[in-house]
Each structure stands twice: as C-alpha cells, then as structure tokens.
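Example 3.2
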Amino acid sequence: MPKVFGRSSAHFSPADGVDSTDPRLRAAQLQHLIANAVREEILALGQNTDQYLGAIDDPLPGLSYDRVIRLLRGKTQMQLADLVFWADRFESIRNVILRELNT
C-alpha cells in the first residue's frame, strides 16, 4: 500500500500468499511504523523534513533529503544505521522498535 506507507500508525495486512511471520514483511512493517513516527516527531517540532535535516549538526553520511524521503515512503530500505540514527533522536522510535521486535 504505497500511498499510506509511513503515513499511518496502523499495521498493514500482508499481501495474498505472504505469511504474517515472514521476516521481509516484518521488516517492511517496522520501516512503515518508524517512518510514521519520524514524520509525527518532526511535525511535532513544527518543522518539515527538510528543515529538520538542515538543522542537524552532524548528519549521518548518506542522510540527504532525497534519501530520507525515499526511506519514509518505503522506496528505499532502511539500514541499521538509519534505525540507530532515528532511535537516538526520538524515544518514540525506540518504543516502536522494541514493541515490534517483541511481537
């Protein structure tokens, strides 16, 4: 469901023939929930993604605006460094990661 990826806190249903325990589905679900939480956190600061990234003193290499937008839309897969970067900045991201890995 590309149009709602990262824009809702709801879990999405697996496609036909995909088991709900498939690690690829769980990874996509995790990225979807993290993307949503990132968007919410940035909006709560009264900023947009470009403003937030522009204010970071020590950006992660490869953390360009274009790449972050692709991550938040699910067009590019998050890497572990991305997860750590966002988890370091927002408690809600840490909570999403812990909750999803414990299900």
